[in-house]
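sorry to bug you again but im stuck and you know this stuff better than me. theres a chain ive been looking at and ive put its sequence and its fold in C-alpha cell form underneath. id like you to explain what the C-alpha cell line says about the fold, in plain words if possible. anything you notice is useful, everything is just below.
___
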Amino acid sequence: NCDGRTNLTFTGKATLTLARTIPVITASQTVTFGQGLTDGIFGTSNVTKSGRGTLAFSGGSGYSGTTTIAVDGGTLLLTGTATMLHSTVFTVNQGGVLKLDNSITPNSDRLNDAFPITLSGGKLTLAAGAETGGSVTLTANLSSTIESATGTAGTPNRRVRGLATAGGALLKALGRTTDRPAGGRARTRRE
C-alpha cells in the first residue's frame, strides 16, 4: 500500500509477478514508476490501480496484460515518454481517470490503437497533443467522460476507431482550451 503523505518515485524498471493491484490510497499522493512495469517470468501480468491517489508512469511499460482502474480508483497517468502499447484492455470504472499527458513530452502513441478501452463510469483525459486509440465501449446505465484539454502547446485531438454503447449509457464529451483563437470553435467529428 502506498498510503503516505509524500510522493514516491521508483526510478528503475519494475518487474511484475502475476496479477497485481497497486493501491495509492491518499488522494494527494502520486506514486511514479520512472521506467514502467514489465512482465516477469510468469508471463502475462494484469494491473489494477486502486485508491484515490495518482499512479504515474513516466517511462514505457511492457507488461502484456489488462489494465483496470478500480471504482474510486483515482488517476492512472501516462506522462513523459510513457507508453502502454502491450496492455491489451483498459477498463476505467466510476471515480477513475485514465490521463494521457502530452503537455511536456508530445507522444501521439501512448496506447495501442488495436486495443479497446471500456469506460464504466470513468473518464479518459487527453492533456495536450493528439492520440488515436482503439474502440471505446460505454457500460450500460453509467455516465462516462472523454475530455481533451490543451494550453498553448497545441490543439487537443482524440480519435477513436469506434464507439459502442449499451442501454442507458451516457457519454460526456468535454473540450477546453486556454488559447482558443478568435472565432475558433470546438468540433466533434465521427469517422
About this structure: The two ends are 43 Å apart (CA to CA). Residues 159 and 175 are 13 Å apart (CA to CA).
